[in-house]
Specification:
Blueprint lengths: L12 E3 L2 E4 L1 H13 L2 H8 L3 H15 L3
Antiparallel strand pairs: 1-2
Helix pairs in contact: 1-2, 2-3
């Protein structure tokens, strides 16, 4: 009998104890790269545009140098 074995790891990046980046934001960025649109990416993920924009804005704000 042949069995498929795989290892899956999920990780998050925290800055000052605030979740900065994880699987959801990675997926959003992948969709944005594929579609070229935050709106289309949000729709593909079942998110509102406002939520997707807030995620992108948080990454931009918290990812920049202090």
């Amino acid at each position: 009998m042949h069995r498929k074995t795989e290892i899956r790891i999920r990780h998050w990046v925290f800055i000052d104890d605030i979740k900065f980046f994880g699987p959801g934001r990675y997926e959003l960025l992948e969709h944005i790269a594929h579609t070229g649109s935050i709106s289309k990416a949000a729709s593909a993920m079942g998110l509102s545009y406002k939520k997707a924009w807030a995620m992108v804005d948080a990454m931009n704000t918290n990812g920049s140098s202090p």
